[in-house]
Amino acid sequence: MQLQSINPSIKALAVIILVLCLSFVFDPVTPFILWLLVLAVTFILGKVKLKRWLFFFFPFFILAFGYIWTTVVFSQPPAEIRTVTLVQLGPVVITDYGLSIGLALGFRVLCFSCLSLLFIMTTDPIKFILSLTQQCKMPPKIAYGILAGYRFLPLLKDELQIIRHAHKVRGVNRMQGFRGKIEAKIKCIIPLLASAIRKAERTAIAMESKGFTGSRNRTFFHKVTVCRHDWFFLCLMVGLFFVSLFISVLLGTFRGIGSL
């Protein structure tokens, strides 16, 4: 079983369930164990390139470190909770309570980011839209509108490059400084918008000429189905959460959001 073959709607449902379940957990051990398990699933079943994964994961790592650092340094524990001072550097006091809450928030961010990357890097966007249309009953007008916009993104990039080269030949972008760069970008927006409107109008005429009415009662050339291995993946991901929860309970570190 590979993650690329899993139904995108089922995969998205698994990610949403894990995110919701993890939102009610507020100890550092449970999200840390779940993070390790999600990493294992991503690289074993997803066959994701490590270099590409690290490139997208690094900003989330910085965000998680910021959560940990600010919570550890500036947390104010409730009066009824007894804390133990771990480190004191002048006015900065690091307690066990602040460290626990900071690590819980940081590992939660890491877990959320790994779940998001698991979905993004193993899912074909076109297949995901088709799955939303066929399994989740998304209106075809919205689905095919999203697909058309997704297909237009590379074309708009090429169109922008052509406009910039045309401006450079005619000497339009010779102004220097920050103001010159802003004016150059503004001058690219209008022709780019006009080109996008022309392409959208041509696409709409082409779809209407081929009988596209946006009705739900239609057939599909590419059919996306739900198989047994899709449900197995959903049960696997939910099971990973309960495994991490069980280990945290055994270690005596589990703490729900209601126990804060």
Written overview of the protein:
- The chain has helices at residues 8-22, 29-45, 50-74, 96-121, 125-134, 140-170, 177-209, 228-251, and strands at 85-89, 92-95.
- Helix 3 packs antiparallel against helix 4 (96-121).
- It is mostly helical and 260 residues long.
- It folds into two domains: 3-123 and 226-259, no CATH class; 138-209, no CATH class.
Briefly characterize the structure.
The chain is mainly alpha-helical and 260 residues long. It is built from 8 helices and 2 strands, in the order H-H-H-E-E-H-H-H-H-H. Helix 1 runs antiparallel to helix 4, helix 1 packs parallel to helix 8 and helix 5 packs antiparallel against helix 6.
Counting helices, strands and paired strands, the structural category is mainly alpha
What's the total number of strands?
A: 2
Number of helices: 8
- Return the string of H and E elements: HHHEEHHHHH
Q: Largest sheet at a glance?
A: 2 strands, antiparallel
In one word, what is the shape? flat
Regions with little confidence, pLDDT below 50 for 5+ residues: none
- Give the strand order, joined by hyphens, for the main sheet: 1-2
Quote the beta fraction.
under 5%
- Fraction of residues in helices? 55-70%
Query: Averaging pLDDT over every residue, what do you get?
Result: 80
Number of domains: 2
Rounded to the nearest angstrom, the radius of gyration is 25 Å
Distance between the termini: 40 Å
